[in-house]
Design goal:
Rossmann fold, Dehydroquinate synthase-like, alpha domain, four-stranded parallel sheet, 17% strand, NAD, EC 4.2.3.4
């Protein structure tokens, strides 16, 4: 499978990605290599990764606790301290082996330690392969507020090896599918239509779709690296999706949503709102809902939780000049950015989702 060359770094696929990595390590003159993992990737992914790594350099493993709840400055501080204690310098390399928490946090740690050290992303979840590791967005949460602290800074390369997906539970696989569905909705109806019969897809089909999804995201990012205009379309479903995710993370008596699960709900909500504000087809909106519910189920959002979720919208990163900006659809593959939405319409959207 062909590599994708972005303006700043290459994305390599399958086992040939390790050939590219090892060639890079021989020529880059790094002082030391650090591999960031969590408990899960330490056990299930690290042995396989190290078996493919060829280097005479010293390799140190840094482990953090797994889960979105640990994607914060406190965890960063712990990793920064370990790097310092192990005498990392600006010529050291940090390899982030894990899902979106690891790639987001690890990229941020590398971008800020001693004002910047090199890093490489090795995503091990579907979500991190098609979204978190692509495009140079790094960062952590502020309390339960998603991705409030971070920088856009690309690494040296991204390695996509779907063998890691064999270690994933089913809900984590579904979580990644949400971002792939989003790429179809904002960019390509043909790509969206490939997901209408998910039960017929083989692992080889998924391999091809992952490559196509990454290519779609990269094309959007290349046009707008710093998210001033078209890159905002990648936030489709994320305005309310992130608010839902943040709200449930903050409620110890509620079961938290995975990122993709929350974004899936957010996409249904945004599709409904689109029917009211941009002329989006109500029939297509219902088709989107049916497709997403078939994959993710339909966990209900209690009426008493809707207003607290709406209250969190003021923290969304796309907001400008005090305005909450949504990404909506005029048609599949035709998104519209910087849309304002009244609260009563958001309540209507939740009623549509719950129905």
């Amino acid at each position: 499978m062909n590599s994708i060359n972005t303006s700043n770094y290459p994305i390599h696929f399958k086992t040939s990605s390790y050939t590219e990595l090892n060639t890079h390590l021989k020529t880059a003159n790094y002082s030391k290599i650090f591999v960031l993992v969590d408990q899960n990737t330490h056990e299930f992914c690290l042995p396989y990764f190290l078996s493919n790594l060829e280097t005479d350099l010293e390799v140190e493993i840094i482990e953090i606790e797994a889960g979105e709840i640990h994607k914060n400055i406190e965890t960063c501080s712990g990793v920064w301290n370990v790097l310092s204690e192990l005498e990392a310098d600006r010529k050291s390399l940090l390899i982030n082996l894990g899902g979106g928490v690891i790639t987001d946090l690890g990229g941020f740690v590398a971008s800020t330690f001693k004002r910047g050290m090199a890093y490489i992303q090795v995503p091990t979840t579907l979500l991190s392969m098609v979204d978190a590791s692509i495009g140079g967005k790094t960062g952590v949460d502020l309390g339960h507020l998603k991705n409030q602290i971070g920088v856009i800074n690309t690494g040296e390369m991204v390695l996509i090896d779907i063998n890691y997906l064999n270690t994933l539970p089913e809900n984590q696989m579904r979580s990644g599918l949400a971002e792939m569905l989003k790429h179809g909705l904002i960019y390509s109806e043909d790509y969206w239509n490939k997901f209408t019969a998910l039960e017929k897809l083989s692992l080889d089909d998924l391999d091809v779709l992952i490559h196509e999804s990454i290519d779609i995201k990269n094309q959007i990012v290349e046009k707008d690296p710093l998210e001033h205009h078209v890159r905002k379309t990648l936030n489709y479903g994320h305005t309310l999706g992130h608010a839902i995710e943040s709200y449930y993370l903050s409620q110890p008596d509620k079961t938290a949503f995975l990122h993709g699960e929350a974004i899936a709900i957010g996409m249904i909500l945004a599709s409904f709102i689109s029917t009211k504000l941009t002329g989006f087809s109500t029939e297509t909106c219902q088709h989107i809902k049916d497709t997403i519910v078939d994959v993710f189920g339909q966990p209900k959002i209690s009426g008493k939780d809707i207003q607290p979720i709406i209250d969190l919208l003021k923290f969304d990163k796309k907001n400008e000049h005090g305005k909450i900006n949504f990404v909506l659809l005029e048609a599949i593959g035709k998104p519209k950015i910087n849309c304002q939405v009244e609260n009563n319409l958001i309540f209507d959207a939740f009623n549509f989702y719950n129905s």
